[in-house]
Amino acid sequence: MTKGYISIILHSHMPFIRHPDLKDPLEERWLFEGISECYIPLISIYDKLIKDHVDFKITMSITPTLMTMLEDEYLNKRYLQYLKKSIELSEKEIKRTKYNKELAVLAKFYNERFCKILGVYKNYDYNIMNAFRKFHRLGYLEVLASSATHGLLPLLAINPESVKAQIGVGVQCYLEHMGHVPDGIWLPECAYTYSLDYVLKEFGIKYFIAENKALVNASPKSRYGVYAPIALPNGISVFGRDVESSYQVWSDFMGYPGDFNYREFYRDIGYELPLEYIEPYINENKIRIDTGIKYYRITGNTDNKEYYNRKRALEKIKEHGEHFFKCRVEQIDKLSEHMDQPPIIVCPYDTELFGHWWFEGPDFIDEFIRKTMQNNCNYKLISPMDYLKKYPIVQCSSPCPSSWGENGDFSVWINPHNQWIYREIHKCGEQMVRLSNTYTNSTDLQRRALNQAARELMLAESSDWPFIIKNNTAVEYAVKRINNHVDRFNKLYDSITKNAIDLKYLSQLEALDNIFESIDYKIYQESK
């Protein structure tokens, strides 16, 4: 008997990191690692589930920046080179480790893994968006839209036109890549504030995902907490993140990924083998980086790591998949006793957790889905949209402004380390509105410059840059990206207003920052 529903939601995002102007840029590898470690392993699992006639349902957001990069010819060629280098290195490792029984097994494992990844990539015509479109078309996957460049919308709301542009361009990008308008949207960082309501409605959004606090502190109080959606006064539904299922995966002290039998993320041969051996497979400037070949397991809180045992790790996956499954069964049983409609447990995670940070993560998803479908359990897997179709009567309530960041607020993205960003992008936003209102009948050249100015503004607005600065990771790169896009915007603004557009400079920017080919700068016009 079906007492409730589970909705697994994977948020897939990368900032726009395309650098044809640079030789072997480090940051492009963020995308390549995501493809090899997360996206293709998940595609392989979805394909295997379909082949085994497992009737599953999963939801994924794929942001416009990621969609664009996954379909970019230059980046796909670069990824293929990266993957072939990985295979070449794994072949060398088979020879190097042949006298060490444990390492030899692992070297062969990585070689077979990389070759399988290449096979999947080739099977989808070197464009993995083809796979996601297929799963979506077959009904196994629901794909959510997102804002154009993952801008943190509440912090852009001082310029309502910037928010409108982020959402409008994001929806248009979804339509171009997926072939139809989206039902749901992933608000970047699950960040919600009241001013977003009318913009989401304008672009036909039916629902979005929010942090637990958004529903728990809703007004009036949500009758069922996060276990049923609420609806804004304009009819848009809101689903809240379940804390219990989140902590089982995310938590530092109780999360599955910390098990000592899983692969150790921070030990990679790119940092450990002699430079003369590893040099062809790291950055061309001899900067040591991850190769994806990691021979150790977490072991414990020690530097003396033991070798990774794939068989033992997969046994742990079965245990954790079983545990997660049983917890959801118990959770549904308890919730259904106090609700007059079946509860929905919404489990949103960053896709990059599954495979990149937690190497065995895709196997965990596979195990949980199979446990669900093989057992006559009390719940079914569902997408948020399908739940709304089944239960269209939703309590009217206003969610509380919040995000899924630390403290449930916006402090990760605006604090003493990164607050300077907003002076720059808010000023550019005001100028973009001025341009859009002024140049209502632009020439072809003006239109190109105005559209490129809009692209540069959106790329500067990405929430990734303040996040990186706050976490003190690739700070120099993030600061450079913000300043570059702001400088490019300002130069375009000056050239447009002075009627002195430099065609050569404009063409260079169009080739570098080539996102959103069909963008229309007039989306920044003030509403009358």
From TrEMBL:
Q: What InterPro entries does the database record attribute to this sequence? A: 57_glycoside_trans_central, BE_C, Branching_enz_MT3115-like, Glyco_hydro/deAcase_b/a-brl, Glyco_hydro_38_N_sf, Glyco_hydro_57/38_cen_sf, Glyco_hydro_57_N
> Which SUPFAM superfamilies does the record match to this protein?
Families 57/38 glycoside transferase middle domain, Glycoside hydrolase/deacetylase
- What Gene Ontology terms describe where this protein resides (cellular component)? extracellular region
What region holds the Glycoside hydrolase family 57 N-terminal domain? 8-326
Please state what the protein is called. Glycoside hydrolase
Q: Which residues form a coiled coil?
A: none
Please name the taxonomic classification of the source: Bacteria, Bacillati, Bacillota, Clostridia, Eubacteriales
Q: In Gene Ontology terms, what is a biological process of this protein? A: alpha-glucan biosynthetic process
Q: Where is the 1,4-alpha-glucan branching enzyme C-terminal domain?
A: 425-524
CDD domains to which the protein is assigned, alphabetical: GH57N_AmyC_like (cd10792)
Please state which protein family the record places this protein in.
Belongs to the glycosyl hydrolase 57 family.
A Gene Ontology MF term for this entry? 1,4-alpha-glucan branching enzyme activity
* Active site as annotated: E189, D350
Which keywords has UniProt assigned to this entry? Carbohydrate metabolism
Which residues of the sequence carry a binding annotation for substrate?
Answer: R241, G258, W404, D464
